[in-house]
Design brief:
There is one protein chain. With about 325 residues, the chain is mainly β. It contains one helix and 26 strands. Strands 1-26-25-24 form a four-stranded antiparallel beta sheet, with no helix packed on it. The protein is globular and about 45 Å long. The relative contact order is 0.15.
Length: about 325
């Protein structure tokens, strides 16, 4: 493998509030390389500079307690509010200017945990949605998510234009569609997490291929260099993949892929306590310089798996591109 090289930025964000005791569910880079961190329990968006210095806070009294995804574009911050089963758009002052989603579309679905066996068919929006992408042509794509098996397409006002996906492993089916981005070619790129793959679609949901040399892809973003940056979760002891069956234990990592989904770089080791390694990379963003930001739900994972790393580890890492 050959591709860009990175070095961890020591203690980046170490002075941010609750960065060692709270989950940071997602992270985004917005205009002017501002970094948007989505905290939860309760949920709010903390905006900081590339150096980690705090600039402002958004949505503290607006969002539900367990939001999942954040996307920042000029003039708006979109937050996918998982347990409120909706998407909210905030203006520059953090005021809600748009909300759409009339869920849960499956009221009986559990509000926590992974329950693939409970998802028997695709449903309308939303049941525990996960992430949103804003396309260059203004349409919105939302992955839905923990309690559904669909991608939904909306106009800029949040009106539903169409949906696709059913539970399963065939092309166009999903087991936890976890993240979505729209690339420079107009392809809709979807992390099909529990199927250990990324699927590609056209703007209306027609399958256009899949990338399978991955494990539990949780977040994907395209950089200005045209490459794809993927946050991958761990395979843990006893896990069974719907695609691969029983899988070996393997750590979380970040992968950088070319246009065809071929891996160029893998970042991470089997020592999750070390800088540049991960407990459970959950969200990912890349700035204009090619620096990578990775968000982890480390507080929740350490509570479940205390052997993973020291409790003092932060929920966000920055990796500086050096070549």
């Amino acid at each position: 493998m050959s591709g860009p090289r990175y070095e961890p930025v020591a203690a980046w964000g170490g002075d941010l509030p609750d960065i060692r005791t709270k989950d940071v569910s997602d992270i985004a880079v917005g205009p002017n390389d501002e970094v948007y961190l989505l905290y939860r329990e309760p949920s709010f968006v903390l905006v900081c500079g590339p150096d980690g210095a705090i600039r402002r806070t958004l949505g503290r009294d607006v969002l539900g307690k367990h939001a999942h995804g954040v996307t920042a574009v000029a003039g708006r911050t979109y937050v996918v509010d998982e347990l409120e089963h909706c998407v909210r758009a905030l203006d520059g002052e953090g005021r809600e200017v748009l909300r759409f989603g009339d869920g849960p579309s499956d009221p009986s679905f559990p509000s926590s945990g992974v329950h693939l066996d409970r998802i028997t068919k695709g449903r309308p929006p939303f049941t525990r949605p996960t992430r949103i992408a804003v396309s260059p042509w203004g349409e919105l794509y939302v992955t839905d998510g923990y309690g559904n098996s669909r991608v939904h397409r909306f106009d800029p006002q949040g009106r539903l234009l169409g949906s696709w996906g059913e539970p399963g492993i065939a092309p166009g089916c999903f087991h936890i569609p976890h993240d979505v981005c729209v690339d420079s070619e107009g392809r809709v790129i979807v992390c099909d997490r529990e199927n250990d793959r990324i699927q590609l679609f056209d703007r209306e949901g027609v399958p256009a291929g899949q990338w399978t040399d991955l494990r539990r892809p949780q977040g994907v973003v395209q950089g200005a260099d045209g490459l794809y940056y993927v946050a991958e979760g761990a395979w843990r002891k006893g896990q069974v993949s719907p695609v691969h069956g029983p899988v070996p234990t393997a750590p979380s990592r970040v992968s950088i892929l070319d246009r065809e989904g071929r891996p160029l770089v893998r970042i991470g080791t089997d020592r999750p306590d070390e800088p540049g390694s991960f407990i459970g990379a959950h969200g990912i963003a890349v700035d204009s310089k090619g620096d990578i930001y990775v968000a982890e739900v480390s507080a929740s994972l350490l509570a479940r798996f205390p052997e993973l790393a020291a409790p003092s580890r932060t929920a966000v890492q920055k990796l500086r591109r050096v070549a």
